[in-house]
Amino acid sequence: MTSDVSASSAASATPSSPEYRERLVPGPGLFIALLLIVPAVALVFTPINAPFAIPMGVIVFMIACVTMLLLAPTVRVSGNTLIAGHASIPVNQLGDIELLGSEALRAAIGPGLDARSFLMVRGWIHRGLRIVNIDPADPAPYWIITTRHPKKLADAIVAARG
User: Fold this and answer.
1) What is the pLDDT of residues 35-75, one digit of tens each?
2) Handedness of CA 109, 111, 112, 118 (dihedral sign)
3) pTM of the entire structure?
4) Are 100 and 150 in contact (CB under 8 A)?
5) Is the separation of the CB atoms in 24 and 73 below 8 Å?
6) How far is the C-alpha of 98 from the C-alpha of 107, rounded, in Å?
7) Distance from C-alpha of 117 to C-alpha of 108, rounded to nearest angstrom
8) Which residues 6+ apart lie within 8 Å of 75 measured at CB?
């Protein structure tokens, strides 16, 4: 039995298997907006220690940027599994895939949202996918995932199924 598991994992790791990976990092606009941290922190630290006010602002800005980068989730199709952040589902448990533009995404996560659905939505990404979940044991009727490349992700899921 052990040899079957290692053989199947080796087969799924071959270069011919469909692969997709995207890290949902914020765009440059958010990092530019984060620059407002520098004068805010400097204003707070000036009465305490004026020479260190601006360096402290820069340090806090850098910590915020690194934190945003490190905490950005990853969406990937690896072997026969869709992994979105910490959640994963076998692609054979997924049904129809709908590409969502900005307006469709807004409607899908707004008034059209089923509260039981799985969401991995980042506010700085305005496109995504709605993927029907056909697993009868899973209470989530569908997954909504934001991605900068919805067509590539959909193609990778379809390729991993077949």
Assistant:
1) 999 999 999 999 999 999 999 999 999 999 999 999 999 99
2) positive
3) 0.78
4) yes
5) yes
6) 13
7) 11
8) 20, 21, 22, 24, 82, 83, 84, 85, 120, 145, 147, 153
